[in-house]
Amino acid sequence: MTPPMTNPMRGASTRNLLGPLVRAAYRVRVTGGHLLPRTGGVVVVSNYNGLLDPMLLATNLTRPVAVLVPPGSSPTAWRTAAGRIIVAEAEPGVALREAVELLDRGHAVAAFAEGCGDEASEVNAGAAYLQARTSVPVVPVVVLGSAGARPTDPPRPRSTIDLVVGEPFTPRSVRDPCVRGDVLAVAEQIRQRFADHARQARRRTGGLPGAAETTDRHNGAL
Fold it and tell me: Using CB atoms within 10 A of its CB, is residue 36 exposed (0-12), middle (13-18) or buried (19+)?
């Protein structure tokens, strides 16, 4: 059975409630937030540290973002509240089609460059597929300090978490987004740009969570 279409307006409303709660529990600092286009479809590509990451992306960037997540990668209550997209275990293509529709309607969708566990290659290819289908810009976002001792553990309360936003870019277009080789070509372009941004972000923070040199402040109410 096909799940109902994600409601981005519900996501925008609930993020205004959940965002302050996240920022009350942790010191969340967003660097380069102005680089995320404020309008139009965009694919946000981020690294995955742990269960908190989808919520951070959904509530702390400068516009509402629907997050494409593998099964079991975040608590159900968080997924429902933030209005994010779920990758159904039996039908991952349903979530990708939903994400394409959102991008075509001018919304932002996030996917994880490194995936989660056994889903890594599928999620990575998913981000490339979304871009190949829609030709929207890609924005890399590196998250630092969002996990505890284990990926399933949250960080300590009031610890600092950095979200470092990179320059948007548009991968070279491909002939057919349904051809695996073309999608993999886009995936490689995204991988290289994300890897470059991740190195710069870690140098900028000295490799330590919360050591970002500049911070963009925003009230989270869109």
Answer: buried
Here the tokens at position 108 are 């932002």
Q: Which of 79-88, 91-100, 115-124 has the highest mean pLDDT?
A: 91-100
What are the strands, taking DSSP E only, across 92-145? 108-112, 138-144
For the residues 147-171, what does the mean pLDDT come to? 90
Greatest alpha-carbon pair distance for the chain in Å reads 48
Per domain, the residue ranges of the chain are 27-204
Distance set, CA 79 to CA 30, 70, 179 (Å): 22, 11, 31
DSSP calls for 136-164: --EEEEEEES---SSTTSPPPTT-EEEEE
> CA-CA distance, 192 to 209, in Å (whole number)?
23
What does the alpha-carbon distance between residue 23 and residue 171 come to, in Å, rounded to a whole number?
A: 33
Q: Which has the minimum average pLDDT: 78-87, 130-139, 143-152? A: 78-87
Which residues, including other chains, have CB under 8 Å from residue 208's CB and lie 6 or more apart? 144
Of 93, 87, 91, 78, which is closest to residue 110 (Cα–Cα)? 87
Whether 117 shows a pLDDT value over 50: the answer reads: no
- Give dist(CA 207, CA 203) in Å, integer: 6
Among 158, 24, 7, smallest CA distance to 81 is for: 7
